[in-house]
Design goal:
homodimer, Nuclear Transport Factor 2, Chain: A, seven-stranded mixed beta sheet, 3 helices
Chain lengths: 122, 122
Amino acid sequence: MNAHTHLVARYFDAWNETDAVRRRALIAETYAEDARYVDPMLESQGHARIDAMIAAVHERFPAHVFRLSTDIDGFGAYLRFSWDLVGPDGGVAAKGSDFAVVDATGRFASVTGFLDAVAQPA
Amino acid sequence: MNAHTHLVARYFDAWNETDAVRRRALIAETYAEDARYVDPMLESQGHARIDAMIAAVHERFPAHVFRLSTDIDGFGAYLRFSWDLVGPDGGVAAKGSDFAVVDATGRFASVTGFLDAVAQPA
């Protein structure tokens, strides 16, 4: 088991948590204070802005969940893993891959996401 | 065509160049002065050390070449692309994927490599 399995599991828990209080706790557990998240459509830095970003994704994709779709590959402080964004009907709305850097406290210093596939609107 | 196609082509030219003078010129063209390269087996920072690292790979894998094996995907300053390390017999010795950050001068500030597959010794 990769040393960062727990971190990545909690990272997806944060993305999927709809309770604001629990989500803030998960974000604090998984991201450094000044952590930066960036992907082709989103960008944020720091716990409060990451929280607002995730809340906005929940508004855009209600009842969807992010699920790890690959093993976690990594070495040293560098990780990569992929995910599916799954809708309430079980359909995959999007697939992506994240590249992440872990800091000395064991939290993400940065996460850079790439899109692997996006479902076409029906 | 991705805006960084030329940069990535020159990056592979640098990896494949066996002439020391031409390789140093390609490294200066593609990497920032203090650029950092890291993968599961190699790590170097700055033009001179990147050059020594590539020379060491040539000693380890004589007559092999790195070839881009995917499109270049990216947004903003962030790129990802994959490669094959091809031996003189045409066999693929290793496959990998690089995640790179481009600086304001259009050169790599950092490249982080992951291994996708490694051929078993015969």
